[in-house]
């Protein structure tokens, strides 16, 4: 009925294949998602229309390096929808450093996600200055970047240089409309991927249609020197 | 050599990887931020360092400067060491005695992050400009509600007393009359109390006798009156908000208020997000705040960019003749940008800004009295259709964003334009090499189309019109304009790189 992974799970609900993660805080919902109990384990349904990472999983990812105990640096946490699911996946031994600059959404993020989840460390700072982050320690295994800035790729790269371990993965959500409204989304994704050439080996790139319009996702492996 | 490390939980002084002394923060969230700014809460750290009387490597720039002032022998730690500390932060905290074990250190770091984040949210929420933004948004929403309810009130009470609608314009006056009850209980006193002059009172009482309206039941009247009461209450609240915005703007952003006026200033502020963000915006952005749709359409398709967004509501722009509005908006926006910066740094009201703006406004008024024959930038009428190209037949298939701008009267307009399209030699645009100078030819085309809307030009003869139309048609058949348009959009893409 469903394929089970250690990281996330595909459930069959109402005849449809749905993605879910094991709830880290039992009984707690973050954005009004459905809870589903199966063999005494509670799962949270992961909505691909609200989370770009879920959308990517629906479309099909070649690699999914986020698992139990992974350390993740998450740029652009917003209200924490995706962060909460990553927090579910990395579990007790993992940690998610969630960077968000806008205080309005950070308010919701703190109230809904960060206060309940012991593996989430909220960082209210500008992702342009990774050296100034507080409470971050060591290198991380994955950098996930979902920021709406024209220089989003550059920001992600500086963060990788500061915190991503050699051989770690970058998940870069490319918001083409934030970069250049005049270019076609495809061209924008291509030109952003070029910026990654120096230190990254691109593993996969995709557009997030039909879940998100004009959004792309690039998965790349980081090689610190080279 | 000693190392001085600023951590989230306290300051550590160490030598040869052994901690000599550590100073824990009592209140990490606030003291850490202060230490990062170079302010230490007490002097115990400095006193201790002085006693050691040695050279120090400092992990933080601001603290380095602060300690230099104390004439200590300090220098910045090298990158590699800082990275190492960063990587082993939990261990450093344990060694310093700030935490019992690594797990404890990690959870303390998280607690620190939570409390610091919470205090930042609190800090931001307290800034007064956010309250102004809420107030101006509330004001605009209240206007919508009052207008909506008021027209419902007029419709409903109009069944009972239809003549009233045409005589009384004021929303408040109408609601006050409704509050008095049904038609028969309206007296001169009611009208006078609602603030109408005697002439109107007399007229009303005459009309009241001969009204065509039907009866209204008590139940219905009660509901209508409760709507009227809501309107009166809301109008009261609206006025309170308005004066609140006025006074707050004069306190927080006196210069912006002086240049833009309180209401427009507050709306611009709301668009920017905060007074600090407004201060970082270039004048060109401020000029088109509120016209994002038109601006991005301009960037995308190469149409004319908007001349003004919210600034259209500014009395100077609004009152100016059409062809001056762009210049006025630009002058105001540039002064507003400076004003916002002055306000952020709290320098108080600066009268020269307003004076200089007034000088420029008068200058524009005098210099461009007449609509210019061939303006350097084609101007358009009406703020709502800035950037709309008139040569719609030349356009590519419409994309999503331009939907809704199509006009059913394209053709008549075109023919009207063609009739008196131009009084200068046709060759002027024909001879030009279009592919080389796409922008110029584009402008020419716009100039030409513009002429069509001017009514001060005598209409040309019929024959003239026909010959011109032929010229136009042949151009269309050769697919010339379309190619030219594409070239233009290619050029435009370079401008599209601009950040908004």
Protein described:
Chain A is α/β, with parallel strands linked by helices and 226 residues long. Chain A is 25% helix and 31% strand. The longest helix of chain A is centred in the middle third of the chain and has 12 residues. Chain B is mainly alpha-helical and 500 residues long. Chain B has 25 helices and five strands. A five-stranded mixed beta sheet of chain B has the order 3-2-1-4-5. In chain B, a hairpin with a 2-residue loop joins strand 2 and strand 3. The longest helix of chain B is centred in the middle third of the chain and has 35 residues. The C terminus of chain B is likely disordered. The interface between A and B is medium-sized, with 24 and 30 residues.
Residue share in helix of chain B: 55-70%
Structural class of chain B: mainly alpha
Strand order within the widest beta sheet of chain B: 3-2-1-4-5
Strand content of chain A: 25-35%
**Strands side by side in the biggest sheet of chain A:** 7-6-5-8-9-11-10
Roughly how many Å is the radius of gyration of chain B? 34 Å
What is the terminal-to-terminal distance of chain B? 50 Å
- How does the helix and strand content of chain A classify structurally? alpha/beta
What summary fits the major beta sheet of chain A?
7 strands, mixed
Oligomer type: heterodimer
SSE arrangement:
The complex is a heterodimer of chains A (226) and B (500).
Chain A lengths: L8 E5 L2 E7 L12 E4 L2 E5 L6 H8 L11 E5 L5 H10 L4 E5 L3 H12 L5 E4 L16 E6 L6 H12 E12 H4 L5 H11 L4 E8 L7 E8 L4
Parallel strand pairs in A: 5-6, 5-8, 6-7, 8-9
Antiparallel strand pairs in A: 1-2, 2-4, 3-4, 9-11, 10-11
Chain B lengths: L1 E5 L3 E6 L2 E7 L3 H9 L7 H9 L3 E3 L2 H9 L4 E3 L2 H9 L1 H7 L6 H24 L2 H33 L2 H5 L3 H9 L8 H6 L4 H12 L8 H35 L1 H7 L1 H11 L2 H6 L2 H6 L3 H10 L13 H5 L2 H23 L6 H17 L42 H10 L7 H4 L7 H14 L10 H16 L2 H17 L4
Parallel strand pairs in B: 1-4, 4-5
Antiparallel strand pairs in B: 1-2, 2-3
Helix pairs in contact in B: 5-6, 7-9, 7-12, 7-14, 9-12, 12-13, 12-14, 13-14, 13-19, 19-20, 23-25
């Amino acid at each position: 009925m469903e394929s089970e992974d250690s990281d996330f799970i595909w459930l069959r609900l109402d005849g449809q294949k749905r993605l879910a993660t094991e709830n880290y805080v039992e009984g707690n919902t973050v954005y009004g998602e459905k809870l589903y109990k199966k063999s005494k384990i509670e799962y949270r349904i992961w909505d691909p229309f609200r989370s770009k990472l879920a959308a990517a999983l629906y479309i099909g990812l070649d690699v999914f390096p986020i698992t139990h105990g992974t350390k993740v640096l998450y740029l652009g946490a917003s209200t924490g929808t995706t962060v909460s699911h990553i927090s579910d996946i990395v579990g007790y031994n993992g940690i998610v450093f969630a960077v968000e600059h806008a205080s309005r959404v950070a308010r919701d993020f703190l109230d809904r996600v960060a206060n309940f989840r012991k593996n989430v460390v909220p960082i209210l700072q500008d992702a342009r200055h990774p050296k100034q982050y507080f409470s971050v320690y060591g290198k991380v295994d994955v950098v996930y970047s979902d920021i709406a800035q024209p220089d989003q790729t550059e920001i992600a790269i500086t963060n990788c240089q500061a915190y991503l371990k050699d051989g770690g993965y970058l998940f870069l959500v490319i918001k083409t409309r934030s970069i250049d409204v005049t270019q076609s989304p495809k061209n924008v994704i291509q030109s952003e991927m070029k910026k990654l050439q120096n230190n990254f080996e691109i593993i996969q790139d995709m557009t997030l249609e039909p879940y998100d319009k004009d959004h792309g996702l690039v998965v790349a492996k980081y090689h610190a020197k080279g | 050599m000693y190392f001085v490390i600023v951590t989230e939980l306290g300051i550590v002084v160490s030598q040869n990887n052994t901690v000599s002394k550590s100073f824990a923060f009592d209140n990490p969230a606030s003291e850490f931020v202060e230490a990062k700014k170079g302010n230490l809460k007490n002097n115990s750290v400095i006193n201790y360092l002085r006693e050691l009387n040695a050279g120090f490597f400092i992990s933080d720039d601001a603290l380095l400067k602060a300690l230099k002032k104390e004439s200590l022998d300090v220098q910045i730690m090298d990158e590699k060491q800082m990275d190492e500390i960063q990587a082993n932060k939990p261990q450093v905290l344990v060694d310093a005695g700030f935490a019992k074990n690594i797990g404890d250190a990690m959870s303390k770091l998280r607690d620190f992050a939570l409390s610091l984040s919470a205090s930042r949210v609190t800090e931001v929420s307290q800034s007064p400009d956010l309250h102004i933004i809420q107030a101006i948004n509330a004001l605009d929403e209240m206007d919508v509600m009052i207008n909506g309810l008021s027209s419902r009130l007029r419709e409903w009470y109009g069944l009972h007393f239809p003549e009233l609608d045409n005589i009384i314009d004021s929303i408040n006056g109408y609601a006050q009359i409704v509050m008095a009850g049904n038609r028969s209980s309206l007296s001169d006193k009611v009208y006078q109390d609602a603030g109408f002059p005697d002439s109107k009172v007399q007229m009303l009482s005459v009309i009241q006798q001969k009204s065509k309206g039907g009866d209204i039941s008590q139940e219905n009247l009660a509901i209508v009156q409760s709507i009227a009461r809501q309107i009166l209450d809301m109008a009261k609240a609206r006025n309170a908000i308005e004066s609140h915005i006025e006074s707050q703007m004069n306190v927080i952003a006196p210069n912006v208020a002086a240049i833009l006026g309180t209401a427009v200033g507050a709306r611009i502020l709301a668009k920017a997000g905060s007074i600090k963000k407004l201060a970082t915006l270039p004048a060109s952005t401020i000029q088109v705040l509120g016209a994002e749709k038109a601006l991005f359409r301009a960037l995308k398709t190469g149409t004319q960019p908007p001349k003004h967004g919210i600034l259209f509501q500014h009395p100077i722009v609004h009152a100016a003749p059409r062809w001056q509005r762009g210049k006025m908006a630009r002058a105001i926006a540039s002064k507003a940008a400076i004003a916002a910066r002055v306000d952020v740094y709290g320098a108080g009201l600066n009268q020269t800004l307003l004076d200089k703006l007034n000088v420029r406004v008068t200058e524009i008024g005098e210099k461009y009295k007449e609509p210019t024959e061939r303006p350097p930038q084609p101007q358009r009428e009406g703020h709502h259709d800035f950037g709309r190209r008139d040569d719609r037949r030349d356009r590519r298939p419409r994309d999503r964003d331009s939907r809704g701008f199509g006009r059913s009267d394209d053709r008549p307009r075109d023919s009207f334009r063609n009739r008196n399209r131009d009084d200068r030699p046709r060759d002027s645009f024909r001879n030009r090499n279009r592919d080389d100078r796409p922008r110029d030819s584009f402008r020419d085309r716009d100039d030409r189309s513009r002429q069509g809307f001017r009514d001060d030009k005598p209409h040309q003869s019929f024959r003239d019109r026909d010959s011109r139309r032929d010229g136009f048609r042949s151009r269309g058949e050769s697919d010339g304009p379309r190619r030219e348009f594409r070239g233009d959009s290619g050029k435009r893409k370079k401008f599209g790189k601009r950040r908004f």
